[in-house]
Design a protein that fits this description.
two-stranded antiparallel sheet, 15 helices, 10 strands, binds glycine
């Protein structure tokens, strides 16, 4: 796996991207940029003006958010690529958050049995998680990421100025994904992020952005060790077994919440079970809950809702032998994968999650 990572440094990450795209490996390649309405307005002009190799690129716009991640959208994009004369030497550039890189990566993985693609994440979740590691997917029947491929990007270009274009709720979403990453590897950094996020009414962008390189390096090292999620990569699903099911269920119920907020609630459930089942420190759980409730509010989870959420958890890709499996923590930095949780424990954790 040879994904290149362009971090901002003395030379900007966009300049490094331009250098790569004007090099020998991309001679004669056609470039196709996938955007959504937000990145079309706020990020595409910056990209085109700073990366001269993309002056002639075509762009395709997909719907904002999870709506982009469908087989219908993928089919439209494949058709548009064919109509534009794309070939096996063509390159897709995904300019957006996790939904754009998921659908763009999926389309790249399928087109002509696989073409190259590059992620240029514009959200915090994208920068520290979704753009890294080659997971691509679409949703099926409200269930998240049910059909997809592992297809690694050629490069991930991190231009943190794009974060200034985010709405507050998207930044909050990213903070939960960041909390997840740091819970897996670094207690002082985890506590530092919680302090920053709960210290004032507005999340300080620069402070949060300073943790991006550490999160990227951590995810990169995990993915390199286990690109196809046979073992260690499973730790990255912390918060997601509950989070994805909550997200899918609320979407079905017509009360959609952003992915990162669902992960935030999922983390609360999984930290609660970590205390209960693996003896993780309760202070960590309490500290986390204070920040969660400072940053967002979410719908009450009733007994009826728990059954709906459970039905999504039974479909989770990580389950085996009919057991619902989850990542829990013994302590910060000590995750345990494939912990079986029974349905009553799930109901208990979900009902606790909506209590302040
Ligand atoms: N978002 C979890 C992973 O990439 O494995």
């Amino acid at each position: 796996m040879n994904t290149k990572y362009f971090f901002p440094s003395r030379i900007s990450s966009l300049a490094k991207l331009n250098r790569m795209l004007t090099g020998e490996d991309y001679k004669g390649s056609k470039f196709f940029i996938i955007v959504d309405e937000n990145t079309y307005t706020h990020c595409l002009p910056v990209l085109i003006s700073r990366v001269s190799a993309l002056e002639q690129a075509e762009f395709f716009e997909v719907p904002v958010g999870e709506e982009a991640k469908s087989l219908e959208v993928a089919t439209q994009l494949w058709g548009a690529l064919l109509d534009s004369g794309a070939d096996r030497n063509s390159v897709i550039l995904n300019l957006g958050g996790g939904c754009v890189s998921d659908i763009g990566g999926f389309v790249a993985a399928g087109f002509k049995r696989g073409i190259r693609y590059i992620n240029i994440p514009t959200t915090l979740i994208g920068m520290i998680d979704a753009a890294i590691g080659g997971k691509t997917a679409v949703n099926v029947e409200n269930a998240k990421n049910q059909v997809g491929f592992f297809h690694q990007p050629e490069a991930v270009c991190l231009h943190s100025d794009f974060l200034a274009t985010l709405e507050p709720k998207d930044l909050v979403s990213g903070v939960f994904e960041m909390a997840k990453t740091l819970l897996l590897c670094d207690k002082p950094a985890f506590e530092g992020v919680l302090k920053l996020a709960s210290g004032s009414a507005k999340i300080p962008l620069d402070g949060i952005a300073s943790y991006i390189p550490q999160c990227v390096d951590f995810k990169k090292s995990v993915v390199e060790a286990d690109p196809r999620e046979k073992s260690i990569r499973k730790i990255l699903n912390l918060g997601h077994t509950f989070g994805h099911a909550i997200e899918s269920y609320l979407n079905e119920k017509g009360q959609p919440i952003p992915h990162g907020i669902a992960v935030g609630i999922g983390l609360k459930c999984e930290l609660y079970l970590s205390v209960k089942k693996l003896g993780m420190s309760k202070e960590i759980y309490d500290e986390y809950c204070r920040t969660l409730h400072h940053l967002c509010s979410f719908p009450d989870i009733t007994l009826k809702d728990t059954e709906g959420i459970l039905s999504y958890m039974r479909q989770d890709k990580k389950n085996a032998d009919g057991l619902i499996l989850c990542v829990l923590l013994q302590e910060v930095g000590a995750p345990v994968i494939d912990v079986a949780i029974d349905e009553n424990e799930i109901r208990d954790a979900l009902l606790k999650a909506s209590k302040f």
